[in-house]
Amino acid sequence: MAYGAAEHHDDHHNPTGWRRWMMSTNHKDIGTMYLIIAMIASLIGGAMSWYIRLELAEPGIQYIDDFQFYNVLVTAHGFLMVFFVVMPAMIGGFGNWFVPLMIGAPDMAFPRLNNISLWLTAAALIMLVLAGLTGGGPGTGWTVYPPLSSIDFHPDAAVDFAILSLHLAGAASILGAINFIVTIFNMRAPGMTIHRMPLFVWAILVTAFLLLLALPVLAGALTMLLTDRNFGTNFFNVAGGGDPLLWQHLFWFFGHPEVYIIIIPAFGIVSQIVSTFSNKPVFGYLGMAYAMSAIGVVGFVVWAHHMFMTGLGADARAYFTAATMVIAVPTGVKIFSWLATMWGGSIDFKAPMLWAFGFIFLFVVGGVTGVALANAGLDYVFHDTYFVVAHFHYVMAIAAIFAMFGGFLYWLPKMSGKMYHEGFAQLQFWVFFIGVNVLFFPQHFSGMAGMPRRIPDYPDAYYGWNFVSSIGAAITVVGTFMFFVLVWQALRSGAKAEANPWGEGATTLEWQVPSPAPFHTFEDQPDMTGKAPAE
Amino acid sequence: MANSRRNVGSRNRRLGLVLTAGVAGMLGLAFASVPLYQLFCQVTGYGGTPRTEVARSELTGARGDGQMIRVMFDANVNKRLEWQFDAPSGERAVEPGVESLAVYTAKNIGDRPIVGTATFNVTPVKAAQYVAKMECFCFTEQKLEAGQEMPMPVSFFIDPAILDDPNTQDVHDIVLSYTFHPSVEATAALDAERETGGS
Questions:
Q1: Which of B4, B23, B46 is opposite residue A212, by nearest beta carbon?
Q2: Averaged pLDDT, A329-358
Q3: Which string of b and e fits B164-177 if b means at least 16 CB within 10 Å?
Q4: CA A472, CA A457: separation in Å to the nearest integer?
Q5: How far is CA A97 from CA A3, A309, A314, in A?
Q6: Is B126 in Cβ contact with A239 (below 8 Å)?
């Protein structure tokens, strides 16, 4: 039964030094490296957004007089946060670390493929940085719409570098997705049926399917754009009989599932945390699992709600409005199940639980504005305003960051064997929570007043809320650096963590191995026959 | 549960290959969407795509109820094409079911012959499926010698079904729009010229 042992020829001579990391096939080491990549990228992407807020703190042009550079900042911030912070941290980091542990498997199904995924991601990040340093940089927005992204308007190689960066990141994610699906389907401990997997594993499974189906479409569209730019094809070029709207359809067919790729792992993390710190199994386990699946399925048939302004017919607008609103049903199931899990539970307000609470709050606020924006009629007014910016930062960006912070603190004892400083962690939560709300809540107001997205200057009338928003950004800077202090303190002088520092509520398998988790775990798979659903 | 290691290894590979096939399938679908999207637009008139190369036999004739639709004409030229392109002036009342002829004028104001091709669109987009073109300069490429001026005719009719569709009851005006671009070959030649233009 100990089939894992034979898949690791290095069992008794673990590689050391740079070889251990560079050539790693160990899911824990690879997970750690993904988390490090995400942290580095988050500082770059964060610094860009803070610079943007600095410019927007007052009307007029203060710091960024090169408007193409402003566009590059906006673009790179989006790319970095989506492809190089949230995805590597949630899927590559926590997914690699805890999916095998939670299902009692010795490692991922294809450990070498896992290594390839990691280094493709790193190469993609370098390629993106090169894009920013080439010529005028890619100032296309993360949506890369032609004709702006065509050779006529971005004549240097910056956009080509950005396209190739996304190709690499996409290939990495597709390989990772295949790896996760095979691992979860074939390598669960005996007796751990699909309906007994922890919800985080469910979340990664759904996410992996979304990656598998959505990313090839992006890859195809990017390839068309690349050949349009360099080899004289006319997929999106009107003059040659192409149609730029086709790009928008293809992009959003990928792009909408992509936002669920970001948020569904967050659902999984929050489910684990809420259950652990309420000291109860999660309410409505099956409902939770199938709500995620339903969100994933419906996520593929709502893409044109990003395109209400492109002249869709009335029937198409009605359909995409209605289909989009349907998503509120499974997300509602999740929200109420989390609340029901807490209800009557013995809640322990440790820092991870605070982040989970924060996540639920932010996700509800962003979800409510999402239902508003789903209306084609309202979207005509809100389109390309800061209302949209506020909406998607609440529902997906900041919510995902909260789940990542929560997951990181929740699993830090398991990953490092050290405890973080609880008091400082709670202080950091409150600073960050206040910071992001002061940052993004006013953007609803400036957006409703008509403040457009993606501009470095604005009329004086929008000064007030923009200034408040920039104050929020400053508070968020402090919160971010407090997080790094927190991590540094824990790793350097944190108390030693027990195997299970969270008590009875933490029922999943990762808490049954010592902290820090040994290099090899579950070489002999535990027998889960007859055990209750993990969460 | 007797998972022999070879067993799991081969099951993993098999599932991995199935999933890889799924990825290839989605990639194929992305490229298949290009002709499918074009076909979809042509069939449904989506995005303002009128019906083209319609046979004269489909011309139904007027209903005789006197309902007219006002048609206007719009002409544009891509900035890389040194042509002057003019629409027929003014507007005209067109009776659905009756053939109508509009004559645009194109003139090459550059100093060399060049081939152009026109893209076309109908506004409002929901009316496009009822606009049927029988003959049009936009169906083929057009070559103009330096300084040459040429009439560019389009023969079309409006399908009387537009009067019955509840979605188009508010449509009283239709705009036919054309934009002349250098042809694909001409564009390639212009690109090559631009790249060596410095010398």
A1: B23
A2: 96
A3: eeeebeebeebbbb
A4: 19
A5: 19, 42, 47
A6: no
Q: Give yes or no for a contact between A226 and A232, defined as CB atoms under 8 angstroms apart.
A: no
Burial of B196 (0-12, 13-18, 19+ CB in 10 A): exposed
Distance (Å, rounded) from C-alpha A258 to C-alpha A214? 7
Q: Which tokens sit at A152? A: 């006529």
Mean pLDDT, to the nearest integer, of A255-284?
96
Read off the pLDDT band of A311 (50, 70, 90): confident
Cα dihedral B104, B105, B110, B111 sign: positive
> Measured between alpha carbons, how far is B116 from B106 in angstroms, rounded to an integer?
10
Dihedral of the CA atoms A144, A145, A151, A153 (nearest 10)? Answer: -100
Q: Is A314 or A44 the better-scoring residue by pLDDT?
A: A44
How much is the ipTM here? 0.87
HEC profile of A454-473: CCCCCCHHHHHHHHHHHHHH
Q: Does A190 touch chain B (CB under 8 A)?
A: yes
Cβ contacts of residue A327 below 8 Å, gap of 6+? A295, A298, A299, A302
> Under a CB-based contact definition with an 8 Å cutoff, are residues A505 and A349 in contact?
no
> HEC string of A162-227?
HHHHHHHHHHHHHHHHHHHHHHHHHCCCCCCCHHHCCHHHHHHHHHHHHHHHHHHHHHHHHHHHHH
Which of A70, A244, A73 lies closest to A145, judged by CA?
A244
* Token pair recorded at residue A391: 């909406």
DSSP letter assigned to residue A103: T
The answer to whether the CB atoms of A7 and B9 lie below 8 A apart is: yes
Contact B184 A232 (CB under 8 A): yes
> CA nearest A267: which of A283, A298, A294, A289?
A289
Q: Distance (Å) from the C-alpha of residue A215 to the closest C-alpha of chain B? A: 8
A503 touches chain B (CB under 8 A): no
